[in-house]
Amino acid sequence: MGGVPYGSRERETPRTAAVWEPGTETGTRDAVGGVPYGSRERGKPRTAAVWKTGAERRGRRRERDGDTGTERRGRRDGMRINMAHGGGGQEMRELVTDLFQRRLSNEFLDRGEDAAALPRPDYPIAMTTDSFVVTPPEFPGGDIGKLAVCGTVNDLWMSGARPLYLTAGFVLAEGLEFALLERVVDSMAQAARAAGVKIVAGDTKVIERAGTGPNGLFINTAGIGCRQWAAAPAAVNARAGDAVVLSGPLGNHHAAILSCRLNLANTITSDCADLGPLAEALLAGGVGLRAMRDVTRGGLATVLNEIALAAGLRIEAEEENIPVDAEVEKFCGLLGLDPLYMANEGKFVCVVAAADTEKTLALLRSFPLGAKAACIGRVKAPSAADAALPGDEPPVTLRTALGGRRILDTLYGEGLPRIC
After folding, report:
1. Which domain holds residue 241?
2. Pairing mode, if any, of strands 314-318 and 396-399?
3. Are both 243 and 351 inside the same structural domain?
4. Can you tell me the distance from the alpha carbon of 135 to that of 419, in angstroms, rounded to the nearest whole number?
5. Same domain (yes/no): 170, 56
């Protein structure tokens, strides 16, 4: 009944293979002979159907859109993701080729295989994985796409590895705005280029909207890098007497996200950034680098506890030396937040030999991102009392501005849901 005359051999042809367009020959068609319901043509003299294949249709579309795809993007304004975009058919193929592959193109991804065949590296490899569910997906200073790239490459840098390749899996909820997805993927591509990595494999799934939260966009990544330096930073390498250095002020990312959710007007922006230049300077700078950790969920206090427990040592931090931007400090005072437990996405803490403290600070401060780097504490051996009574001595303490001593435990409970 799809416009093919009765008795025609073409009635056995799959209906999806072609679409009719009005021709110049005169003739008649049956009651539903290819004229769409509601079409103005239904009241006009009928014409014979001229058939065009799907390949011809796509050719005409490419001819019209050219390389820029301007008209196609215009048609997608206001469009939303639906379940067909994850169904493995034409809609999904167009989503993958027109959006993801077009923006993330490289020699590995463009092959379109089930797995990327990568060249063998010259150095030992490091691998990491991460997932990103931040709400809102766009925020001052970044978005979930930039965050996914920076968060993954930062994990590799903290292990002493230069990032080379990433994978990206997208979980999209039906109803997600196409324009938002395009902006996120554009941002992801830009961040990957800036970080010198290639996104070599990916996947897309579409799920029902219910229960996915307000944004409906989730990204899972994996990253591979090479450890080409002699230094192999790890928390277990920390030694008593080492210095603890922080790369910059705390709490900006946490405050930016919370400000968006509460509709608070301020100028705080996320610190979301690639830490590669700073980490590489330390790895290649000849300092006695023991350990590096990016200060993300759980904040500085939690990270210091992780290092102390892994090394079997104690850390004493100095409150007066810990940098916090003035506006973030006021924000924390207003809402009763502690910067030591707030999430960051562009800061890291490193443990270095005491003799290399000033050299480390000079290297970090030579970059805008590390301009406010500071030595915030020291690694100490457990006390004699702690040796006699395990568990009595806290792993991390803070010497306050008034000269008191405060225990810094790991974060208890949820600091802020969906912060990264």
Report:
1. 235-407
2. parallel
3. yes
4. 7
5. no
